[in-house]
Amino acid sequence: MDTNFWKQKWDKNEIGFHKNEVNPILIKHFNRLSLEKGKRIFIPLCGKTLDISWLISNGFKIVGVELAEIAIQQLFSELNIDYKILEKGKLKHYFAENIDIFVGNYFDLSEDIIGSVDAVYDRACLVALPEETRKKYTKHLINITKSAPQLLITFDYEQNEMSGPPFSVNNDELNEHYKDYYKLNLMESIESSNSLRGAFLVKENVWLLS
């Protein structure tokens, strides 16, 4: 994982990937996870997404991991809640009621550190990683979450149209990563010619992994 790339994006405030609204895909499809209130949701590479506030306001607990500490400082500031910080190995643990965020490298996050996870919301992590890292990422995710169900968003486009991130992750690749652990259900495929940089056809695919 190129940690410097994402840290520099946040340091330079080059965060066009950060959306100033709750992801409508989350609002539309979250109930497909069939979670009771109070369950704990893991968001890898969470940044300061407004999705966190939406989930907490709807009665869920959040655990996340993020490389850029400035993103998490801004997250808690925008949530307007007091927090504490502890050292957890190579990670910093920012926490308050119903929210735990670990700052550092995702691969330093262990099952013991993350604790119990009831579901995963992968809104921007798998597609942020180059191909050689995605295999390692998915294997680690399965291990630390004990194959918790996922709401997953991917992009599918001709990779030569754009170098990424976000990268194209087609259905065949997704099956290679997850078919031995999950039933994959494509809930929605949204076609657009301007959802990423450049005017080319992109499919934004919404998956339920159960």
Task: Give short descriptive properties of this protein.
210 residues; alpha/beta; Rossmann fold; 9-stranded mixed sheet
In short:
Helices cover 29% and strands 26% of the residues. With 210 residues, it is of the alpha/beta class. The chain has a nine-stranded mixed beta sheet with strand order 3-4-5-2-1-6-7-9-8, sandwiched between helices.
What does the model show?
- The chain is α/β, with parallel strands linked by helices and 210 residues long.
- The chain is built from seven helices and nine strands.
- The chain has a nine-stranded mixed sheet with strand order 3-4-5-2-1-6-7-9-8, with helices on both faces.
- The radius of gyration is 16 Å and the shape is globular.
How does the SSE layout of this entry go?
Layout: H1 3-11, H2 24-29, E1 40-44, H3 51-57, E2 61-66, H4 69-79, E3 84-88, E4 91-96, E5 99-103, H5 111-114, E6 119-122, H6 131-145, E7 150-156, H7 171-178, E8 184-192, E9 202-209
Parallel strand pairs: 1-2, 1-6, 2-5, 6-7
Antiparallel strand pairs: 3-4, 4-5, 7-9, 8-9
Kindly report the spatial arrangement of strands forming the biggest sheet. 3-4-5-2-1-6-7-9-8
Query: What is the number of E strands?
Result: 9
**The CATH topology, please?**
Rossmann fold
The CATH superfamily is Vaccinia Virus protein VP39
What level of helicity do the residues show? 25-40%
Q: Which shape, going by the Cα principal axes?
A: globular
Largest sheet, if any?
A: 9 strands, mixed
* Unreliable parts: none
Oligomer: single chain
Write down the Rg: 16 Å
Element order: H for helix, E for strand: HHEHEHEEEHEHEHEE
Instruction: Kindly give the count of domains.
Output: 1
